[in-house]
Amino acid sequence: MSITPEVTFIPEWAEQDLVLLSWPNADMDWASRLPEIEACYRGIAEAILEWEDLLILAKDTEHVRQFLGDRPRKHQLFLLEMECNDTWCRDYAPLSLHYHEADGTLRPLIVDFTFNGWGMKFAADRDNLVSRALYLSRAFTPDVAYVNGLSIVFEGGGIESDGQGTLLTTDSVVVEPNRNAGVDEEVLRTHLMEILGGKRLLSLENGELEGDDTDGHIDTLARFITPEMIAYVGCDDERDSHYHALRRMREELENFRTLEDKPHQLVELPLPPAIYDEEGERLPATYANFLFVNGALLVPTYGVPSDEVALERLRKALPELAVVGVDSRALIYQHGSLHCATMQFPKGFINKNKWN
Questions:
Q1: Which long-range contacts (CB under 8 A, 24 or more apart) does 41-48 make?
Q2: pLDDT one-digit tens code per residue, 133-181
Q3: Domain span at 296
């Protein structure tokens, strides 16, 4: 199937079938923190199940079933046996699009980009097969079409959509040489827009967080929360190493315009106070790494006073949603957070009969 401007990259606030998680195990880099991270994932799973169904990929599904317990829940829990290199399924699971048929119907598509461990930093041989494995396992409804985007190395955490044709990314990811070596930058940007149905691609030059080994994913920095509104990370502490870069990033956001040529409404989220690992490395805690679910916004929290500031600002911006904090302290020790660990699939994409 050829990709044309009749394609829409579905925004994350659209109604969803379920959220995907990849469960940590002792073969991953989580081995030294396995009890802590499994407890964290249990909290994430239960938070999601308050609002919608959840699919968990796991090396040992029976272990996960027993760990989470068999108790009545508001929504369904599905388990699928699958081995992954790491838990950050935001970056290797497929992206969800709609193709607009001539008669006005919407055909669901999934796009599978190549994932190479954020520029060959980490092993990714199993993760890079997940999108195809999900498709071939019939996890998706029969009318979902698979789009081969494997000519491009890209990750889901590196791109945002307003649902109206505007895509948002960062220069540091697009031009990173170990992702798409030898590909002209403008050719790459054009190809991304063609595959994802973008009318334009906005790209930030500033803002990478310390401890972020993705080279500056947009989902750690600035996120669409409506077509007109962007939530972003700000810093008002001149002593913080992020201060100047995040100030320049805000200036960039102030200069962006909607498709109607209006400035975006900007919602500043505080940068959490510095959190360090045992070796003194700063960890990339960010409130921008939130997750939309049906009826709610799940926001990572880190056990610091700025948690409540971030939650209140998002509640004010999105009064129609319940804004719920989810303890994500364990996640940042492997340099990600809540959005990085999840992938949503819109309504009409998932074949739930597979598990019935």
A1: 41/87, 41/341, 42/67, 42/68, 43/326, 43/327, 44/298, 44/326, 44/328, 44/338, 44/341, 44/342, 45/21, 45/77, 47/298, 47/324, 47/326, 48/19, 48/21, 48/291, 48/293, 48/298, 48/342
A2: 999 999 999 999 999 999 999 999 999 999 999 999 999 999 899 999 9
A3: 7-350
